[in-house]
Amino acid sequence: MANLDAGGGGAGSAPNRRMAERHRCYIGLGSNLDDPRQHLETAFEELAELPNTQLLARSRLYASRAMGPPQPDYINAVAALETTLEPYALLDQLQTIEQLHQRRRNQRWGPRTLDLDLLLYAQQSLQSSRLSVPHPGLAERNFVLIPLLDIAPSLQLPDGRVIAELAQQVGNEGLWPLT
Fold first, then answer.
1. Residue of 92, 103, 150, 161 marked catalytic
2. pTM passes above 0.90
3. Are 56 and 120 contacting, i.e. CB atoms less than 8 angstroms apart?
4. S-S: 59 plus which of 91, 139, 147, 177, CB 3.0-4.6 Å?
5. What is the pLDDT at residue 103?
6. Known catalytic residue: 115?
7. What is the CATH code of the structural domain delimited by 15-177?
């Protein structure tokens, strides 16, 4: 059974009413170690099982050249969720899924079994040491923008920029759809 208190909040009607609000969120998925395609397929299933959350859509899988140090190419995708979880509770759930996939945070932009990034949370903008939404770099990364186009072609960022226009600006060099 779903834990309705997963997003925090205390007694009283206002927090409970707020927790019941459903928020559209977008999650970036990436992997380049230990059967990346399988890690992403399993992660989609795990996202669909999150408490108080529904998996609405998933993009195609894309291969992309890795950023950062020399390493294998990535497989990337994006998922659309609707959730009553608050942003930090959702982040906790995403990090739990990463841990199930033996995610190690040894090197910035280094290889990984699974990376789950909270790209967008409704039309909110959040900045803290733990979470930045919209995700930093989202507007410059074709491996995020092109999969977003698959599932939300008219999506806009909180600042009004349109995903389709951003994707056209960055192009698709180094990115190719998988069959």
1. 103
2. no
3. no
4. 147
5. 64
6. yes
7. 3.30.70.560
